[in-house]
Amino acid sequence: MSKLFKSIYQEIPFKRELFQFIRRFYIPSPGIYKHLFFKGSFKVKVDDSHSFKMNHYNTHGFPIEDELFWEGMHNKGRENKSLELWKKLAGISHVIFDVGANTGVFSLVAKCVNKEAEIYGFEPIERIYAKYESNCQINNYPIHCEKLALSNITGTSIIYDQPVENLYSATLNKTFAVQNHLVSSSKPVEIQTKRLDDYILEKGITKIDLMKVDVEMHEPEVLEGMGDYLVKFRPTLLIEVLSDDIARKLEVRLMNLEYLFYNIDEHSEPKKVEHLEKSGYYNFLICSKETAEYLNLPL
């Protein structure tokens, strides 16, 4: 019966326009608005001077799109502070990498605030990559959308995909899949992988200023695949750290690069720490002293 109701609901016309009208007077709770989906694009206001468009897909499973439609960029959602920091950093960056792009919100924010930036985004799962590419196209953003995963090998690998329209936890890390009970519900899919140093050479990239890395516990392999370019480019990193083990592996890679570590509280100010650890939320900001000063972070 629920499938029947959902099918009927999906066919109702003008939902977007109705919800835009309702939004002017009332913002429902996330538990309610996750059911108020529609098909079509909507405008996301970044600040008084910048905005971009994003698609919604007339189904459940798109919480970022839900949050952005109903509450805007400055909501209290899962990555509010991370997006705020990303926006500031993107504005001063020339070459930006979005590793684990999903449907593209970080790429879109970066291009929106900095039209001159060269942006490269990586999303290996076909149906999600298609949404990412479409979001770039509706904004006429010339973002380099790549249907592959960055890793420590160039070749192929198995990713643990799930039978849902969208997902935030597909992973190349089997330990993560087992710990989160994803193996039994997932379909192993062969995907293309590439070392970042191979990609850099192939594309003739001379620097990377800013990187977001959100690949469900495969972050150490991404940095390993960067090879000597991690030292040469020394990019600012917005990176997901989901366990102490991942934190230790990352810190080994970042040793002696004079980085500062900030544990991002998505509802407060970033906290400077001496060592990486499992994030209380999702992400760490890893940056130089100069970047921290630009962001007015504690040193």
Query: What is the share of helical residues?
Result: 25-40%
End-to-end span in angstroms? 57 Å
Shape: globular
* Beta-strand content: 15-25%
Q: What is the arithmetic mean of pLDDT? A: 91
Widest sheet, order of strands? 5-4-3-9-10-13-11-12
Q: Can you count the helices?
A: 13
Estimated radius of gyration:
19 Å
- CATH class category label of the largest domain: Alpha Beta
Proper CATH architecture of the largest domain: 3-Layer(aba) Sandwich
Examine the coordinates and then state which fold CATH places here, giving the name of the CATH topology of the largest domain. Answer: Rossmann fold
The main sheet comes to: 8 strands, mixed
In total, how many beta strands? Answer: 13
Number of domains: 2
Low-pLDDT regions = none
CATH superfamily of the largest domain: Vaccinia Virus protein VP39
The assigned structural class equals alpha/beta
Instruction: Spell the H/E element sequence.
Output: HHHEEHHEHEHEEEHEHEHHEHEEEH
List keywords for this structure.
single chain; 299 residues; alpha/beta; eight-stranded mixed sheet; three-stranded mixed sheet; 23% strand
